[in-house]
Design a protein that fits this description.
Keywords: NAD, Oxidoreductase. This protein has 314 residues and is of the alpha/beta class. The chain has 2 domains: 2-94 and 280-299, NAD(P)-binding Rossmann-like Domain (Rossmann fold, 3-Layer(aba) Sandwich), CATH 3.40.50; 96-278, NAD(P)-binding Rossmann-like Domain (Rossmann fold), CATH 3.40.50.720. Helices cover 31% and strands 14% of the residues. It starts with a strand and ends in a 15-residue tail after the last helix.
Amino acid sequence: MKIALSSFWRHEMEPRLPADVEPAWFQTVDEAVEAVRGAKMAQLDLLAPERDIRRVIEAGEDLEWIAVCFAGVDRYPLDVMARRGIAFTNGVGLVAVPVAEWAVMGVYALAKGFPDVVRMHDRKEWGQSPYGTVEVSSSKALLIGYGHIGTEIARQLRGVGTDVTVVRSKPDPTTGVLGPDDWRATLGDYDFVILAAPGTEENEGMIGADELKAMKKSACLVNIGRGSLIDQTAFRAAMDAKEIAGALLDPATPEPLPADDPLWDAPDTIVTAHLSGRSQTTMPARVTDLLLKNLERFRGGQDLINVVDTERGY
């Protein structure tokens, strides 16, 4: 059986593949177009626009299953896969711990004003006053999105005493879990608002001018979900007006963010170039483990792990 695989994983995957599997390795979009011809399956990990990924999938006329290492799949043409009946699996859970650690790092960095501490160091200045005095252990956080990553963020923050309120698609009043229509009215209650939701159409711009104005002026925003979750024009205006105290933005729109984008110069804002998921060393082994488990299931006619709902987008 022929399968198309990203060369990024070749060192880990190649020696572990079943002997009767014929891998076709690719690095670029053009190489992927050739690799998927005649392939039944593709591990389609491409940092490319949707139009290019669409071109690759259209070239793979025999594709029955596409896998990706990413949790967010907003760059993939779900309509094509739904129409053709192609099974689509993602990498939910593969980077939950490092991404959660990045988000928690952001909470601490903002709480203690750490970017200004670094600048103080660069000036070789022995400051007398701290730049941030928020104690994370006694703070309140609103966590929007409660998948694998959100669950891990909540675990880590609750471990130090942070009062975490969760927002997910299905509310649960018995445990204090808020639903999609409940959280906006509570924004003024929190020291931190953390975005870990998927980049679906319904979530686009969920944090805009009204939401930023509703937050406490001393509150901070952390986004490790998708850049589309924030109205970036409204965000820049809010930061200029000092409507909130600070923000850490890991993803952005577009990516890479152009050097002249106003987001780079937003006051009290840390832009971290979507590095959260890459801040680890075990990803190749975990991606390979998941591929091999699903490959066995695929060949045996069993249900795959991490199947994406192409209607909901995650």
